[in-house]
Predict the structure.
Amino acid sequence: MIETLHQRRVLLVIGGGIAAYKALDLIRRLRERGASVCPVLTAGAQEFVTPLAAAALAGERAHTDLFDRASEAEIGHIKLARQADAVVVAPATANLMARMAGGHAADLATTILLATTLPILLAPAMNVQMWAHPATRRNRAILEGDGIRIVGPNAGRMAEPESGPGRMAEPNEIADALERMLGLQAGDGPLVGRRVLVTSGPTHEPIDPVRYIANRSSGRQGHAIAAAAAAAGAAVTLVSGPVALPDPPGVAVVQVETAREMLAAVEAALPADIAVFAAAVADWRPEHEAGTKKIKKDGTGPAPMSLVENPDILATIARRPAGRPPLVVGFAAETDRVIEHARAKIARKGCDLIVANDVSAEGGVMGGADNAVHVIRRDGTVETWPRLGKDEVARRLVAHFAGLLAD
Ligand code: CTP
């Protein structure tokens, strides 16, 4: 099975209803698709299933209490509400929906739901009359107005004798709805079923706790490529250095600071069908690890600083003996003799293709909204594209990569 939720993290809030037992199966289905699942059980949920069962299936601890000393010290509920890609509430009971609509935060589940800025998917499950009640309909409208997605409920046999809508959507339907919400099911894009890895942004190499070596990369081109690949149906992991950009929709983002962290995150994100190295990695870092103390002026002039070379992430992955992505793409930021340098870079780094851009001051590309690129292949062919917005460059590059992969 293709791991369509590869590296996605799901915070699963289990509400108190008989359908809670199906939430256990949902944990399984999500993990089958590659997601990691952090279960949170309401008090009501624990009447139907145990935190131990949820934890055993998730392979990590289940959370239940707002004031849990262990987890407050370790992570805390606010962090819990952030460290994921999406929140799924299954089953979402009438009571839980009412509390969400009212903005209550009396327990861990509702506090997370109020504190989170992640996309939220609800899988309601309740008695037919409760679902049809005007109060539930009002709450549903409020929640949808807040941008919350809802899957189900389905009509069919329930625990009670009545039938009609109220039965929780099946686990695989919920997982599909989650993928759609995260933009992972574009359906007919050229990269459906493909995995794409993108690096983006600068890296920061700390000198001391307050200073660092960096460069002018904004991350715009790399982020646009990640977004375009996701829109083309790929499961995308974006490893990003420090940038002032929002996370692209439907993309798993791993934030890093230094080149060495970026390399580790890239290696952890493999395998991939396409790896695009758009980050402007700092070539050098201070030889000595930044301590916890700021370097002070001592009156004898600037502190001496020696630099060492950072690992070349692109070359490391392109030359990997096993598990090399079939298409490895590098970027070349050049100020002169752009094509000549780019060709040399393909040979030196072992990649299949270089997207070269002129970053000389006249080009105005670095940090700007436009880009003018040359696409240079290993066989020496060069395509020179007109100056375009970075989003359009990204879309064309993704289409180009998809074409190469299909050849
Ligand atoms: N790159 C990398 N790791 C590094 C340096 C660069 O992965 N430590 C990647 C970049 O993401 C880009 C490509 O290598 O895809 C080329 O980067 P560039 O800075 O243009 O090349 P350099 O190797 O630094 O060569 P030079 O500075 O001599 O032009």
